[in-house]
Write the structure tokens for this entry.
Amino acid sequence: MVCAQVQTPLVASGKTHEIAEHVYVIPDQRINVIPNIGIIVGRDGVLVVDTGMGPRNAETVLDEVKKITSKRIAYLTITHFHPEHGMGAQAFPASTTIIYPTAQKTELLEKGAAMSNQFSGVSTGIADLLKPVKIRMPNVTFSEEAEVDLGDFPVRLLHWGSSHTRGDEFVFLPKQSSIWRGRGGEPIFPHHG
Ligand SMILES: [Zn+2]
């Protein structure tokens, strides 16, 4: 496989928009290894879905949240353990509860460092994003399903077994009839083939 010049995966600033009631997305810009990041704003706080790769990108996410609401980020959830989805968790406030499937935590512990090294080998831009990463563990894990209460509507976090990874998560918003899945824009890596 030939690796052409790889664009450094920087989360977009100023492109966040509402896709359903109380649900916003920071779009992936169709750039490899940038996820579509979710910002779900409830009465009592915010749930963020995925961090972007490394603390620099996570800081952009935090700035985008502040443009939408002054409410605190009560929860962070991560759709799978790959670096562009969760390896910015350290930038979130200490008071933010990090919650995702137990299988994802296990997979992060087993394969997170190796995956980070693999990604860092793709480009210096990616290596620079990942160099300052300190793995932050979740506060809460669940085996199959959990419900997050943001005050005025429920958010269900679902783990239905292995698909893209062993710890994949779906985020389901029954009131908005929306579902979030975390895979996207990352076909350049062999493990996604
Ligand atoms: Zn992935």
